[in-house]
Amino acid sequence: MPLPLPRPDVVDVRIAAASLVAGITLWSLGLHMQMDRPLGYGWTLVPLFVMTGLELLRRTAPQTALACGTLALIADQFTPGNLATVVMFTDLVYAAVLYGTPTAARRIPITTGLITVAMTIGFLAWFREAEALLVGAVTALVSFAPATTGVLVRSHREAAEMARLRAEQTALLAEMDRTQAVTAERARMARELHDMVANHLSAIAIHSTAALSLDDPRTTRDALTVIRENSVEGLAEMRRLIGILRDSSGDLEPAAAPTLDGLGSLVESARANGLDVTLDDTRAPDGEALPAPVGLAAYRIVQESLTNALKHAAPGRVTVALSRPRGALCVLVTSPYGDTPGPRAPGSGAGLVGMQERAALLGGTFAAGPEADPDAPAGKVWRVAARLPVDPADQEVTE
User: Fold this and answer.
1) What is the DSSP letter of 29?
2) pLDDT at residue 313 in the model
3) Range of 298's domain?
4) Domain boundary pick from 123, 149, 171
5) 38, 269, 330, 391: which has the fewest C-beta neighbours closer than 10 Å?
């Protein structure tokens, strides 16, 4: 089954109709281009109608239209000729370069240029007069000139298309960068929110459960005291976080961010919540100051580890150890591993992910999991170990 011909473009239809009207008008007025031709004046209409039909294919089948148009133009040379036929042929040459394949766009200008040179030399050899140069000029105007015009227009269109594609790619990359920046900022805020508030909410949940499950006024009063303290501290932390979100100066970690100097207060708060915690800080008291991102990350890792111990650790001592070997800050938190009696607060696993992300952002290492310990009540401890590079040159990414 033959394939249907493509539907001509509206612009091509208008060009064909206008050219046909112009050609018929010239023919009816008796205006022609040549004298003493083998065929009569009526035969001029045949190439004219053929060329008009080919104009409908100038965009959908440009190379076919040019090949057939060349034959029609040759046939027109045996008639008195019509100017509209020649003009339509020049348009077919232009369209074949502009809308044809890249190979055709390269070959047509070369071919028409060679034809122009050959026609000029041939008629010079035949006529042996300077007027023969006019034949070459007319041939160039009919074939080579529209071909080179098509090359220029096509080059400009391709350059504009390349510029448009580059602009789209640039916009796409900018959007990807913006999305990644937003995602990274959300992840950072999620870590900050979790680290600041989870400890207080876990203590509130555990002590409120104890107050509800034990019918002891003293226990209830103590639990409510701890709940109030954690509520006030949690509210203060939330206000600090809101201050970070409202800060328009772009300072991601304002001066109010906690440092390792506040570990003593953090440990005391954990003891008030019921943990048996010891702090072993072997860093040199007069050593070099830690970079702010390293101090914040270490503080948050200890804070989250104590929160997890409050929620999940078995009865026993929790130890927090900080050391500073050359070029790094090491954090080690161990807690008893086993079944927890009494109420427990649910966990989501986001804390471990947050600690690992904090260490990774600084180019450090992080590990957490159970480990055998013969001195522990259940023979195992939960060990959280982080190594954070202190030298900025060793940090791949900083917050």
Assistant:
1) T
2) 80
3) 259-399
4) 171
5) 38
Placement of tokens 């499950």 in the chain: 213
Q: Is residue 318 part of a domain?
A: yes
φ/ψ of 280, rounded to 5, equals -120, 95
Among 152, 171, 190, where does a domain finish? 171
Distance (Å, whole) CA 65 – CA 53: 9
Number of domains present in the structure of the chain: 2
SS3 assignment, position 8:
coil
pLDDT per position as a tens digit, 273-292: 778 899 988 876 656 678 87
In a domain, 198, yes or no: no
| Entry pTM | 0.51
Question: 390 phi and psi, to 5 degrees?
Answer: -100, -35
Q: Residues in the chain, how many?
A: 399
**Longest distance between any two alpha carbons in the chain, whole Å:** 128
What pLDDT digit, counting tens, does each position of 300-322 carry? 899 888 888 887 788 888 999 99
Which uninterrupted H or E stretch holds 365?
A: strand 365-372
- CA–CA gap between residue 363 and residue 33 (Å, rounded): 84
Q: For the chain, which ranges sit under pLDDT 70? A: 1-5, 191-200, 210, 214, 219, 240-241, 243-257, 284-288, 339-350, 392-399
Tell me if 190 is assigned to some domain. Answer: no
